[in-house]
Structures are given as C-alpha cells and as structure tokens.
Amino acid sequence: MEGMLELLDVFYLWCKQKFVLHAESEPPLFKQGEVWWCSIGINVGSELYGKGDGFARPVLILKKFTRTTFLGLPLTLQEKSGTYFVETNLGGVARWVILSQARTWDARRLEMPIGEFDEETLNYIQKKFIQLISC
C-alpha cells in the first residue's frame, strides 16, 4: 500500500506539471533532427517516463507535423541493443534512440534544446524507424 501512495504522489506532481505545460501560450521554435529536453511525464506500464522535477528526458524530433506538434523518439544514456534501438553520438556522448517509444507530442512540452543530429544520422534513424514499423 505504501508504494501505491508514493505512486499517487508522483502522479499528482505530474498532473500539476501538465497543467503548467497546458497553460503555456507559445511553444518554442523547433525543427526536425533536433534533440530537446521534453517533459514527457509519468506514463503507464512499460511506457517510458521522464525524470526530475519536469518529468523530462531527451527526445529527438523525428518529424515536425505543424508548428505545435511533432513525432518524437526518446533517448537514453543506458546502452541498449536490438532492433528497437539505434546507437548514436550527440555532443561526444553515446546515446541510444528508442524506436519503440515513438509518440506524437505538443511542442509546449519542449523545455530546452540539447543538440542536433546531422542529416546523415537523422536519415539513418528514420530508415531504422520505418523498418521497425513496416514489419
């Protein structure tokens, strides 16, 4: 029961953060290939979640749909292998793009840019993502 109460506290904090995000009037300017700290929140089951006060993690903007929405892929520093992951390097740091956790997000969740992948790397990630969802 104690673990359930702690989880409820975390969900409550995330709900407060979502309210703040929703109240943001102007989303930041962003483009495909950039990696941003993104407030992705606390999610259900095996869905990836954010950490810290802003419930954030790095997210690659794989495809910009509109000025306010994009398809994003979360990144991790934990070494991963298999068809669901693409190893990359961003700013001299090894990171793994998590292809299986693709999601459409509102740009108001974007907190701060981290870096940007070059066109060749972005094309490779897009190719791997398409291969994964085409099976």
Give the helices and strands, then pairings.
Layout: H1 2-23, E1 34-39, E2 56-64, E3 69-76, E4 85-90, E5 93-98, E6 103-106, E7 110-116, H2 119-134
Morphology: globular
The CATH top-level class label: Mainly Beta
How many domains, as an integer?
A: 1
Elements, N to C (H/E)? HEEEEEEEH
Beta-strand percent range: 25-35%
Number of strands: 7
CATH architectural grouping: Roll
Question: What is the CATH fold-level name?
Answer: SH3 type barrels
Q: What distance lies between the first and last C-alpha atoms, to the nearest angstrom?
A: 41 Å
Helix-residue proportion: 25-40%
Low-confidence stretches: none
Structural class: alpha+beta
**Number of helical stretches of at least 4 residues:** 2
Main sheet summary: 7 strands, antiparallel
Explain this structure to me?
The protein is an alpha+beta fold and 135 residues long. It is built from two helices and seven strands, in the order H-E-E-E-E-E-E-E-H. The chain has helices at 2-23, 119-134; strands at 34-39, 56-64, 69-76, 85-90, 93-98, 103-106, 110-116. Strand 4 (85-90) and strand 5 (93-98) form a beta hairpin. The longest helix is centred in the first third of the chain and has 22 residues, at 2-23. The chain is globular. The model has no long low-confidence stretch (mean pLDDT 86).
